Amino acid sequence: MTPYPRWTLRTEHTGYTVRLSPDGPWAELDAWGPHGAEHGPSALDWSHRTHFITPADAAPAEYLPYGIRPFTGAELIAAGPDGERGSWWEFDGAQETGTGLRLAFTDGLLGLRTVLCYETVPGTDIVLRWTEFTASRELRLERLDSAAVTVPVTAGARLTYLTGQWSQEFQRTQLHLTRGTFTMGSIQGVPGHAYAPWLAVQDTTGEDAPAYGVALEWSGNWHITAEAEPGGAVRVRAGRVPHEGAVRLAPGERLTTPRLACAFSADGLDGLSRVWHRYERRLSGERLHRPRKVLYNSWEATGFGVEAAGQLELARAAAGIGAELFVVDDGWFTGRADDTGGLGDWHPDPAAFPDGFDRFVADVRALGLDFGLWVEPEAVSPGSRLHTEHPDWVYRVDGRPARLVRHQLLLDLGRTDVQDFVIATLDRLLDTYAIDYLKWDMNRPPTERGRPSAGPADLDAEHVAGYLRVLDHLRAAHPGVTVEGCAGGGGRVEHATIARTDVVWPSDNTAPLDRLAIQHGFLHAHAPHVMSSWVTDAPGVFDPRPRSLAFRFVNAMCGVLGIGADLRAWTPAQRAEAAGWIARYKEVRDVVHLGEARLLGTPADPTCGVQYDADGRTVVAALSTGRLDGAPLVPGRPARLRLRALDPAARYRDTASGTTYSGAHLLHYGLPFAWSADHDADLVVLTRE
Ligand code: DGJ
Per the database record, which ranges form the Glycosyl hydrolase family 36 N-terminal domain (predicted)? Predict the structure, then answer.
């Protein structure tokens, strides 16, 4: 062994090299980039001279406790019973596994062993990182991040992240960080609408600069923090944020942090998005190959006014245009005339389904449609029977008022009895009725988050564990049921959820141009096959800027197509057009969901789109974001959308028009689109000849 051993983790196109530091007992990043980038002096190395700070504060450390790294941000703050908040550790050995690495550090005085864990994911450019702690006496962990990574930069870093609020999730946002700290996160018990637990870091040299990304696999409270350091580096650390401010570790207990997925692409943000897409296709496992059916969801059409006749009328119309699945959203159960009641009492409302719910489901299925149902398993309405029988099942703080959000309370899903109730409820529904699809919603964060007289607890982690336990149960006990993840739109989209659901709902906002921006941001971090998207009525409830039915279809076809409009009001011509789009979608959905996706331009451009490539087929969704005044430009030329990654020497044939193009033409000039007042979107399928 050399005095400072190095280990390189190899992914499909990249290498991640870690070494033991010459400066102290810690691991530090030596190189992260394309294969071979580790051969040469480390770009993260530094002068080894410090003033007023310690070497540990300046090192590109992979993980350090407060104590060893006193000034510039530590990943771990651990305290013993005496209250001393710091740890000083010794290296305790490395273990290489076939695809991973474990580096152990021990603090004998404090009684804490910390193992930094690394695992590559085959077929991807992802390195997963997490940390395991074992205590030999009772400890208090005030900070327990998953990992830290360091990115060398020249004049500063460009950070790309996804921000928003309810109905405006996943807005791509950028800032230049030259000095100082940038932090985002959530203490809402879910990742939240304000920030996605995802960050990309590049040098400020250009949009195409190599891109480094992190994403935290955690359904609860979290933070991602980037700190621009004086020596030309940005250090990013990420992890969970305990609700109680600290986690108690009992003697002999082992605690594992959430995994931080670390991604690299030499091809800028665009290439980075494909690294994430490929990883999420892997997270879906064999269920990736289950075709995502064309859904109809009645929420926007009927709201809480769910009753059999109206739903069946919608189901008939949906089947008529080619939908494959009918989902009844909120409002189907007893006490749910509006959002003030009913949650927790998960029984179909007999007044709404006078011939019985099973008969209603059978009627839907007789139309050739699968059947789906909305549930919000963590929620309870104050007047419900569930709340009357189990008032102790909700989060609450003795002596404090219980605030309502959307008129409802939140069940403490960290409790095993609550998990068992939720599992029994879902089993009952799925065993009693022929249900193929479940939409799991969650519409309020915890506020008075307590569990009276239960002793010390890690409520956030317990809620996450309960949520994942129920999702795991659904997958194991009801493997045929497709699951959609939703939290008041896109409030709980992260890798733990994506690995256990089939699709997620990015936002309640389905208005065409707003949705375009939401999906543009979403596709930076997440794969098309998980992106549920509906065609709804125009003008909708959000952004009234007009766009055609074609635009709304092409936009929704960029992910998993659904319809949420009130089809009862649609004219025969609209229904015929919709049927045409749905038929086209069915022909290309395998390319959209399984192919390589490339974002073409941004919604700020007058024409933007998404290109999908698989097996010699290229599908281009093209959208005009410009004015629709119908005045032709005189003289004028068609808009062009430059495609990418085609073979310049090959010929590509537009299957609809028969026009052929050379790859060079499509790369150099692009596909032409002659937009007009009533032609603002197109879907082009090119076949390589
Ligand atoms: C919020 C979801 O995001 C919507 O799609 C819908 O299911 C409503 N909840 C129902 O209450």
Answer: 74-250
Domain carrying residue 652: 617-688
Tokens representing 532? 């549920």
Query: What is the distance between the alpha carbons of residues 577 and 579, in angstroms, rounded to a whole number?
Result: 5
Q: Is the CB of 441 under 6 A from ligand 1?
A: yes
Residue 634: CB partners within 8 Å, gap ≥ 6?
Answer: none
Report yes or no on 225 lying in a domain.
yes
Please give the average per-residue pLDDT across 436-448, as a whole number. 98
Catalytic annotation on 441?
yes
- Six token digits for residue 463: 């809620």
165 and 297, same domain (yes or no)? no
Angstrom distance (rounded) from CA 504 to CA 487: 9
Give the other-Cβ count within 10 Å of 608's Cβ. 20
Q: What are 394's two structure tokens?
A: 């909700």
621 and 489 co-located in one domain: no
Question: Ligand 1 pocket, 327 CB below 6 A?
Answer: no
Regarding whether 39 and 142 lie in a shared domain, the answer is yes
CB atoms within 10 A of CB 658: 7
Is 440 annotated in some ligand binding site?
yes
Give distance in angstroms: CA of 441 to centre of ligand 1: 7
Percentage of the chain modeled with pLDDT above 90: 94
Cα–Cα distance between 129 and 259 in angstroms, integer?
6
Report pLDDT for 631.
73
Identify the pLDDT of residue 541. Answer: 74
Query: Is the CB–ligand 1 distance for residue 299 below 6 Å?
Result: yes
pTM > 0.90: yes or no: yes
Burial class (CB in 10 A: 0-12, 13-18, 19+), 546: middle
Residues 239 and 303 in one domain: no
Neighbours of 434 (CB within 10 A): 13
* Distance separating alpha carbons of residues 132 and 638, to the nearest angstrom: 58
Testing ligand 1's pocket by substitution, the residue of 329, 492, 504 carrying the most ligand atoms inside 8 A of its CB is: 329
Residue 543 has pLDDT above 90, yes or no: no
β-pair type (370-375, 437-440): parallel
For the chain, what's the residue count? 689
Cβ proximity of 530 and 490 under 8 Å: no
CATH number at residue 425: 3.20.20.70
Chain center to CA of 465: 18
Identify any residues that bridge with 33 across adjacent strands, giving them in sequence order. 15
Mind spelling out the 3-state secondary structure of 279-308? HHHHHHHHHHHCCCCCEEECHHHHCCCCCH
Better-scored residue on pLDDT, 312 or 205: 312
440 dihedral zone (left: phi>0; alpha: psi -120 to 50; beta)? beta
Largest CA distance in the chain: 80
Q: How far apart are CA 618 and CA 597, in angstroms?
A: 10
On whether 329 is known to bind a ligand per the annotation, the reply is yes
Quick: pLDDT tens for 21-62: 999 999 999 999 999 999 999 999 999 999 999 999 999 999
What six digits make up the tokens of 640? 């062009």
- Quote the CA–CA distance of 557 and 609 in Å, as a whole number: 11
Q: What is the arithmetic mean of pLDDT over 547-570? A: 97
With respect to residue 72, please indicate whether it lies within any of the assigned structural domains.
yes
Q: Are residues 18 and 74 in the same domain?
A: yes
Q: In whole angstroms, give the CA distance from residue 93 to residue 311.
A: 63
Write out pLDDT tens, residues 93-139: 999 998 999 999 999 999 999 999 999 999 999 999 999 999 999 99
